Amino acid sequence: MSEFKNLQQLNSIQEQLARQSLRLDSLKKVGAYTQMNIKDIYAVYADPDKVAHISADNEIFVGTLNDIETWLLGVMWLEHNYQKLKLVDRDRRELAERRERDKNMINMIRTGRAPTPDLPFGSPNGA
Question: Is the pLDDT of residue 121 over 70?
Fold first, then answer.
């Protein structure tokens, strides 16, 4: 029964992440988690087709399913409060993402190579 419950939790998290233009994947670099002997570690990545300004290789969040579920509640709470304060809504966010994708496409056509996203912090390899 616990396997079924884990599968339901995994499907629920994937649906919620898809609404936020994110995706769930197994962690590629395990590092400290193998030293702590923690299994079932997942990473949250940006969906490169929907979020153009974040590198698809950078992990946004890393943890167990319970950790990701708790983090996702905070993300949804923040989005809800932003909408209440009329700071950001889903349509404005999608418009900004579309503009960024269009800008990247124009730069790619001009230069002939794929754009590298501007990373405000962290290293390009996501460490």
Answer: no
Q: What torsion, rounded to 10 degrees, do the Cα atoms 51, 54, 59, 64 define? A: -30
The pLDDT of residue 36 is 61
What does pTM read for this prediction? 0.60
44-66 burial string, b = 16+ CB within 10 Å, else e? bbbeeebbbbbbeebbbbbbebe
Given the structure tokens 């790619």, which residue do they identify?
Answer: 108
Residue 35, domain extent: 2-111
- Residue 112 region, left (φ>0) first, then alpha (ψ -120 to 50), else beta? left
Give the chain's domain count.
1
Who wins on pLDDT, 33 or 63? 63
Does 117 reside within a domain?
A: no
